[in-house]
Each structure stands twice: as structure tokens, then as C-alpha cells.
Amino acid sequence: MLIDYQKANIYQKDGILVLKDVDFHVDEGEFIYIIGRVGAGKSTLLKTLYFELDVDEALNAFVLNHDLRKLKRKYIPALRRQIGIIFQDFQLLGDRTVYDNLKFVLKATGWKDKSEIDERIADVLEDVEMQDYADRFPYELSGGEQQRIAIARAILNKPKIIIADEPTGNLDPETAANILQILRQVTQTGTAVVMTTHNIPLLTQYPGIVYRCADQRLEEITNDYNKIALYQEENSSDEVRTVEYTARQDLSM
Questions:
Q1: Measured in whole angstroms, how far is the alpha carbon of residue 227 from the centre of its chain?
Q2: Which residues contact 220 (CB under 8 A, 6 or more apart)?
Q3: Which of 33, 57, 85, 138 would be a feasible disulfide site paired with 92, CB 3.0-4.6 Å?
Q4: What are the respective helix, strand and coil percentages of the chain, to the nearest 5?
Q5: Residue ranges of the alpha helices (H) in 31-75?
Q6: For 168-218, how does the pLDDT look when each residue is reduced to its tens digit (9 = 90+)?
Q7: Cβ atoms within 10 A of the Cβ of 75, count?
Q8: Residue 79 gets which letter from DSSP?
Q9: Which residues are CB-contacts of 93 (< 8 A; sequence separation ≥ 6)?
């Protein structure tokens, strides 16, 4: 299991309790939605997953097999290399080309060989169908194109988990659907995706495991939204990894 929270209390940096008794579980290849009103705790929960906020009060609080209650700060950089993060506002470096944005991440995470860097950048740009945009600057791209580059950046190091905080929030419905298709494809490799969203129609169009933040609680409500079969990419000749999105019967397994 990639993430295992049991009876965890989630606090903001100022010490205000946001979520209590959180049970939250993520396994390989799962697509997880977290929904809820603004201020309900969605982003705060995500910050604990990429180690920006501590979790001290919990029966269990494991991310990538590391106990957050005992985690030493020196281990965080190495753990973050196993996590890809996508934000609503893209957070691309405006003074650098797409290629240089991606190269910056690889160099910062220990890549040195230029040919390997070039090959990896070419691979991820092809994955998000942006292979012809390597020399463009972010300001030359549409919102949807920038988000595709943000996804390419997130998958550079072949992460075990992708955390996406409202990645479709600034996009029109058609572009948002395209971004969801790319993220769903990522799960076929075994990478889990944890995504916050206000775009409720996406939950039925692209089913996943659904959690809701409300009244300081996190509740799994998957069966409320499991209306259609798991989305599978049309005309795919590859074997598709299938995850059955129904409410978990035994979360202790």
C-alpha cells in the first residue's frame, strides 16, 4: 500500500485541526478523487502526502512505507522524488522553454547524462502529446497545453504517486476531460493518482475511488458515483490494467 492513514488528525501549520480520525488508503494503480467545499481540508490533506505538513497524531500514517510520525527531515528529498505534483496554476518557470523546465527538474533530482536527459524529456513529451513544443515558452501555450507540460514534469522520474491539486480548475470542460484521460493513462503503469476536484461530472465520466471532506471528516463515498464502467482508452491495443472501483470492504488488508 502506497498510503495508509488510520485515525489520523490533520492540522494546518497554525495548529488548527482541519480533519480528524482520517482513514485514507491508496494502492498501486488506483485513481483517487477527493471532493469537498473550499476550506474543507482537501489541499491540507494533500500537503501531508508530500511532506509539507507533519502528521503526529495517528494510529497509522504511512506514505511510501515511511511512518510520518517518525520521519526525519533528511529523508524527505529522496521521498519527494517518488512523488509527482500537479497544481491548478501549472507553476512552470516562465523564463525557460518547455525543454528547460523539464531539464531543470531532472538535473535537480540527480540526472547528469545529457543523452539520457534528452531521451527522457522526449519520452514524457510524447506521452502527453506535446513533442513538438519543447522549444516553446509557457506564455506561448494555452492553459491545457501548460497543464500537459505540468503532467510531463510530474512523471519525469516515474513516480509511484501523482498528487494533483485541482488540475482542471482553470480549464474548459473539453480540455479538462483531455487532462483526465492523460492522468488515467498514467495509472496503467501502476502509478497511483490522488486528485482534488470541484468538477463533479468527471467522477461519473472517469470513475475512481471517491473521498469527500466535510465537517472535519474524510469519508469514502465511492458507490455514490460508481455509475459507469471504468474508463478505458478507445482503440488501445495494449493490455489495460483494470481496477474495480467499488467501496473497499476491508481496508485493513
A1: 23
A2: 23, 209, 210, 211, 247, 248
A3: 138
A4: 30, 25, 45
A5: 42-49
A6: 888 888 888 889 999 999 999 899 999 999 888 888 888 899 999 999 999
A7: 11
A8: H
A9: 100, 101, 104, 138
pLDDT band at 9 (very low <50, low <70, confident <90, very high): very high
- Enumerate residues 6+ apart whose C-beta is below 8 A from 22: 5, 7, 8, 9, 10, 45, 58, 218
Cα–Cα dist 30/190, whole Å: 8
Range 112-122 burial, b when 16+ CB lie within 10 A, else e: eeeeebeebbe
| Higher-confidence position of 206 and 101 | 101
Question: For residue 196, which amino acid is it?
Answer: T
CA 154-165-221 angle, to 5 degrees, is 120
Tell me the longest C-alpha to C-alpha distance in the chain. Answer: 51
Amino acid identity for residue 42 in this structure? K
CA–CA separation, 180 vs 202, rounded Å? 8
The CA distance from 136 to 132, in Å, is 9
